[in-house]
Design a protein that fits this description.
7-stranded mixed sheet; 0% helix; mainly beta; 4-stranded antiparallel sheet
Amino acid sequence: QVQLVESGGGLVQPGGSLRLSCAASGSIFSFSAMNWYRQAPGKEREMVAQITRGSSTNYADSVKGRFTISRDNGKNTLYLQMNNLKPEDTAVYYCSALTYNGPTPYRYWGQGTQVTVSS
């Protein structure tokens, strides 16, 4: 029904930048919100950034001021611009879309893309 495909991950040095992309099969404007999550080995899944249908944004304290979430509705694509990367940013990053089946929330997930920050 809905497919989300991430790209743009890779290896970068501390202080460097990456831009992640998430291509959606449907209209991203129809979702209540879209998010980037990340998970490192031995750690809980963490919400990194969110953008709502009304275009409000929220960020985890650990990335605030360094990461920027955005979207291109015409291309059905979500982005995460990551600047001043740190080794603790190393994780698998997942794109996610939030919708509602009546009053029940439902979240779609992409396959994930690896980001490694190392010198």
